């Protein structure tokens, strides 16, 4: 199962094994509001504006800065993968379509 995201011809997903990043988000209530909102709608179909995508980039990098030393290379790869996707959407002014399984 996956949480699929589409921005133009780009596709990215948060897979079951990636959901652990939201446990880090939960450890710092209020510090990552865009990631909290994303997770609250995880199994829904919705869209994110390019502005929200840009905010998610910053939150993902802040999340990695805060918790990255404790989580190793897997989280770094996940954060980079997601940040690149959301950054492309923000830079190109493309809405992100989201769909959860």
SS strand fraction: 15-25%
What oligomeric arrangement do these chains adopt? Answer: single chain
Total E-strand runs: 4
Shape: globular
Q: Widest sheet: strand order?
A: 2-1-4-3
How many H/I helical runs? 3
Structural class: alpha+beta
Task: Briefly summarize what is shown.
With 101 residues, the chain is an alpha+beta fold. It has three helices and four strands; from the N terminus they run E-E-H-H-E-H-E.
Describe the structure.
By secondary structure, this protein is α+β, with helices and mostly antiparallel strands. Helix content is 55%, strand content 21%. The protein contains 3 helices and 4 strands. A 4-stranded antiparallel β-sheet has the order 2-1-4-3, covered by helices on one side. Strand 1 and strand 2 form a beta hairpin. The N and C termini lie close together (6 Å). The mean pLDDT is 93.
List keywords for this structure.
101 residues; 21% strand; single chain; alpha+beta; 4 strands; 3 helices
Write the layout of secondary structure elements.
Elements: E1 2-7, E2 10-15, H1 21-26, H2 33-40, E3 45-48, H3 50-91, E4 96-100
Antiparallel strand pairs: 1-2, 1-4, 3-4
